[in-house]
Design brief:
The protein is an alpha+beta fold. The chain is built from eleven helices and nine strands. 40% of the residues lie in helices and 11% in strands. Strands 1-2-3-5-4 form a five-stranded antiparallel β-sheet, with helices on both faces. Strands 6-9 form a two-stranded antiparallel ribbon. The protein has a two-stranded antiparallel ribbon with strand order 7-8. It is globular, with a radius of gyration of 20 Å. This is Phosphotransferase enzyme family protein.
Length: 341
C-alpha cells in the first residue's frame, strides 16, 4: 500500500459519518515536505482540511504516533501555543490502511531554511525571536490544566530517550557506523542528574515545522508533534542550535559559515539568552551534552527514514535515501559537541 495516495472514497465516507459539517466531493494533494507521517491537503467545495496519517506497513515500535499528535494539539487549543484546530482522529486501520487525523488547514508562510533568504535583512531576527517566544510558551504549558501530566513517563528524560533512540537506531541499522557507536556510549555515560525540570517538549522544534502569519513575524501554528512528550526543555533549545550548526543550503539546512550579523540573524548565544530571559532561567550549564543528545536523536530519526526508504514505505523515498548519507555527519557533530562539556 502506497503512502503517496489516499483512498478518497473511504476517507469521504468516514468523514461524512464522523466530521460534523463535512461534505464532498473530496480531492487530495500530498504535501512534498515531511518524511515521517504522510500529510495531505483535503479540498472540498466549502472548506480545506489537512489529513495526517501513519504510514502503512511494518513500523518501528512507538513511531508515527498520530494519536499522540492529535491529543497534544487538541490539548493546546486554548493555550499560548499556536496550533491548528483538531477535528477527528480515526484509529481504525481498516478505513485506509492506517490511523489518521484531520485538522484545519492553516494558511501561513513556510520557511524551509533558517537563513531566511526570502526575507529582507531586518525581517529575519524578529522571526527568530518569535521562535524563542513560542518555545518558552511550550515549556510553560500547565500540564495539569491541559490534561497532559501523563503525556510522558516520569523520571530522567535523557535516560529514557537515549535508551529509546538507541533501540530505534539499532532496529533500523543498515551498516556499521563507529561514530554513532561512540556517541551512544558517551551519552550513556554522561547523562546529567535529574534536576526536576519537567515540561511539555516538542521534540523536533525547527523553523520548517512552523507556519508564520502572512504579514507579521508571528507563528500561526507549530506543526509535527510526533516526537512530543513530557520531559526536559533543554533538548528543544538544543534542537534549534543543532540545526543552525549544520551546513547552509537545502541539504544541511543550517547556518554554518553564515555571517549572521551581516545577515540580520541571531548568534547562538543571543538565542540562548533570549530564551532564558523569556523562560525565567539564569542560563543553561553543560549545554554541550544537550547539543550532543540532539545530534544523536536526529541521527536516529534519519536512520529510520533511510531504512523506510529502503523498505519502500517512506513518505518521500528518494529524499529518504538521500538523507541516509547524513547519519555519519550528525554522529560526528554529536561527538564534537560532547567535547565542549
Amino acid at each position: 500500500m502506497t503512502t503517496q495516495t489516499l483512498d478518497l472514497a473511504a476517507v469521504e465516507r468516514w468523514l461524512k459519518a464522523h466530521l460534523p459539517g463535512f461534505d464532498g466531493p473530496l480531492e487530495a494533494e500530498k504535501f512534498a515536505v515531511g518524511q515521517s507521517n504522510p500529510t495531505f491537503r483535503l479540498t472540498t467545495p466549502t472548506k480545506n482540511y489537512v489529513l495526517r496519517r501513519k504510514p502503512p506497513g511494518v513500523l518501528l515500535k512507538s513511531a508515527h504516533a498520530v494519536d499522540r499528535e492529535f491529543r497534544v494539539q487538541k490539548a493546546l487549543a486554548d493555550t499560548d501555543v499556536p496550533v491548528a484546530k483538531m477535528h477527528v482522529l480515526c484509529e481504525d486501520d481498516s478505513v485506509i490502511g492506517s490511523a489518521f487525523y484531520v485538522m484545519d488547514e492553516v494558511h501561513g508562510r513556510h520557511f524551509n531554511l533558517p537563513d531566511l533568504p526570502e526575507l529582507a535583512r531586518d525581517d529575519r531576527r524578529p522571526i527568530q525571536e518569535e521562535m524563542s517566544r513560542v518555545l518558552a510558551a511550550i515549556h510553560g504549558v500547565d500540564l495539569q490544566a491541559t490534561g497532559l501530566d501523563d503525556y510522558g513517563p516520569a523520571g530522567n528524560y535523557y535516560r529514557r530517550q537515549i535508551d529509546r533512540w538507541t533501540k530505534q537506531y539499532r532496529a533500523a541499522e543498515t551498516e556499521a557506523r563507529p561514530d554513532m557507536d561512540a556517541l551512544i556510549a558517551w551519552l550513556d555515560a554522561n547523562i546529567p542528574p535529574d534536576d526536576g525540570m519537567r515540561t511539555l517538549v516538542h521534540g523536533d522544534y525547527r523553523i520548517d515545522n512552523m507556519l508564520f502569519d502572512q504579514s507579521r513575524p508571528r507563528i500561526a501554528a507549530v506543526l509535527d508533534w510526533e516526537l512530543s512528550t513530557t520531559g526536559h526543555p533543554y533538548a528543544d533549545v538544543a534542537a534549534v542550535i543543532m540545526q543552525w550548526s549544520m551546513p547552509q543550503g537545502p541539504d544541511g539546512r543550517g547556518l554554518a559559515g553564515v555571517d549572521r550579523r551581516a545577515a540580520g540573524l541571531m548568534e547562538d548565544e543571543e538565542f540562548l539568552a533570549d530564551y532564558c530571559a523569556r523562560a525565567g532561567l539564569p542560563g543553561i550549564e553543560g549545554f554541550g551534552f544537550y547539543l550532543a543528545f540532539t545530534f544523536f536523536r536526529m541521527a536516529g530519526i534519519i536512520q529510520g527514514v533511510y531504512k523506510r526508504a529502503l523498505d519502500g514505505n517512506a513518505s518521500n523515498p528518494e529524499r529518504g535515501r538521500q538523507m541516509g548519507a547524513l547519519v555519519p555527519r550528525f554522529a560526528a557533530a554529536g561527538l564534537e559537541a560532547a567535547k565542549t562539556v
